[in-house]
Amino acid sequence: MTALSRAGGALADGRPTFAHDLCSADLDSALLRGVDVVFHLAGIAHRRADRAVYEQLNHLATAHLARQAAAAGVGRFVFLSSVKAMGAGGGHAPRAELDCTPPTDAYGRSKWRAETALRQTLADSAMSVVIVRPALVYGAGVKGNLARLVRAVARGLPRPPPGGARAMLAIDDLVTLLCLLGADAPPGVHTWIACDDEGYSTRYVYDLLREAGGRGRGRAWLPPWGWRLAAAALDARTLRGGDESTYSRLFGADLYSSAAVQAATGWRPRCRLREFAAAVSAGDGGGPG
Questions:
Q1: CA-to-CA distance for 59 and 168, rounded, in angstroms?
Q2: For the chain, what are the domain ranges?
Q3: Residue 47: pLDDT band by 50, 70, 90 thresholds?
Q4: Secondary structure (3-state) at 200
Q5: Domain 32-282, what architecture?
Q6: Do the Cβ atoms of 138 and 276 come closer than 8 Å?
Q7: DSSP letter at 188?
Q8: Which H or E element spans position 133?
Q9: Phi and psi (nearest 5°) for 219?
Q10: Which residues of 228-261 are buried (b: 16+ CB within 10 A; e: fewer)?
Q11: pLDDT greater than 70 at residue 242
């Protein structure tokens, strides 16, 4: 196995990685010769960046690396995209792979353009290409909105009002799926959503975290209009054009179906959010177990 990272740091098990910046130089083709599968996990997600940087790394560098891999005779290319590439949903029903709208944020657009480039340029390639669109991922080292919710609950956040539901996926289940696809990807270019079979409201996640920490049910002392007001105040300081509002992230519907990849591969999500909540409470970093 050859692992690459931007900074060249070691993996969790201590194995070294080669330092390489996908935006600054071509990958040495020698590193791709004789390789069975490339897992492309690099990208900008939970950080603010110029739109040009999203475009350069998430889109253009992805397409270029895939073309290099195909030219070197790599057998399979597994690209970690995102459900954000599908744009905003229009209802409460789980969305399938073709239920897309144009993304309005820089991150979603860059992932969609990367997917489009792979489909257009590698459709006739001998290399199998799999595009995986995970929903919100939780597990060890969780970041982004879920990490903020974990911290807020620990600091005494009031119980959220009911409403909304989001698809999620444990990191362990995502890794299992990626390894399965890397070992036996079908010919052609395939795009699959990855999530478990449940929908999680902010209140449900809040209750799990409280329960796991032995705190009991929190008090819902902030009325719904107060949540709207607080979310709008936060957005006034942080929201950029095209970004999803804080209130929508907390209480909107964002559901997906992984029925297609389950039918094609036999993969089934095994982890449950309750295990993650218990791990966070125990202070071990939040692995789903």
A1: 24
A2: 32-282
A3: low
A4: strand
A5: 3-Layer(aba) Sandwich (3.40)
A6: yes
A7: S
A8: strand 128-134
A9: -90, 135
A10: beebeeebeeeeeeebbebbebbbbbbbbbbeeb
A11: no
